[in-house]
Amino acid sequence: MYLSTGSRWFRLDRHAGVRPTLPAAITAIMQNGMLDRTFQDALIPEFLFPALADQEPWQGGLGDTKTFTRKGLLTPVTTAITGSDASANTYSIEQWSVIMDQYGNSVDTNLLQSAMTLASKFLADVQQLGINAGQSINQIARNKLYAAYMGGSTWCTTAGSSDTSIIVQSVNGFANVMVNGVLTPVSAGNPLNVTINGVANTVTGVNAGTSTLTLGTARVDVQGDPVIAANAPNIIRPSGISTGFNLIAGSVATLALFRSAVARLRSMNVPTFGGYYTAHIDATTEQELFNDADFKQALQGRVDSPIWQGLSIGRFSGIDWVRNIECPTVASGTGGSTVTAHRPIVMGANTLVAAPFADTGSLLAGTGVEDVPSVRMVNAANSVDVALIVRPPQDRLQQNISTTWSWVGDFGVPSDSLTGDAALYKRAVVVEHA
Length: 434
What we know:
Shape: globular
Helix content: 10-25%
Largest sheet: 6 strands, mixed
Number of helices: 6
Structural class: alpha+beta
Number of strands: 24
Radius of gyration: 26 Å
Distance between the termini: 65 Å
């Protein structure tokens, strides 16, 4: 069965493989790489956090957990052993995990409805799908990163009488404690040491649904009281503010805050990206920095970024300054809602690990239908390959094309509790400001 030669519609007869079953315009797009290019071009500008992740592909079933092990250091020996035999020593280990999960989304294109603008409608759908994939996986990586590096630092949101529970703004970083190198849920037997308004206490339980911490010692809760875990990562705020609750409109970003972040990373021996740490900043952070005299003076000595190119303001003050509108914001300040808290992050190397499923692109191998649908891996960023799937029409009228992206894996945040100070995570620093 054929349509008239003047129509942009397509042949309905089927041949072996997926391409002959698709409209001619789509077949041409797939053959010359335009489809991949459209998907990839839409993806890359939104794919900033995963681009810095180290790649650790693995195989496993959905829901499986893979555990990584990191070694500590031997204690330096500065005392002479002259006349004695050397003593045997040991080093500690710590572990962190990733979970095999699947993410994806799909768009259907009705070819009959868009017959007059077939190619452009299909490309528009693919582009929107690419943007969705980029934002989705970027936020998956971002949320894992910020859950770790903003964890263990919060404040009381609800005043209460003397008891052993406290409602807080976030329970991230309070649910687990390191026991013999393994992150273990807190309990009465494995409490997490904290300070609440400067007074020592412990956390023995966490209810994430109600944002409630169970304490080892009863206390009277006061709204705004800072709750800081003993292993909390270093977070830098203006004027030495302890939590976001105390931010005010004048708590703005300055170069001095970011210099403190660089000093912190260097003091913890965190490796750089070619001599520079990477700061992800949103538009508000950038605007406030340009109001800072020190920043504008340092900017005069900038060099271009070979990694981020047009996405970067430049490299100076030990930082590669990257524009990233996906940096999170939260309602904060006195009363918890008077200002918007911005959270740029300064990252060193090996901060984030992408652990994708190793063989997503070959799931149909050996089935005899490898070409139906078309499944191709699009390398959108270092360590992240997204499956682009085009399924031929399944309806009787052969009118609905389905295009899907899929990613299987997880992002992990390695801990570094065995070196340096007590902070559990040390390879990045969040700078929180109003």
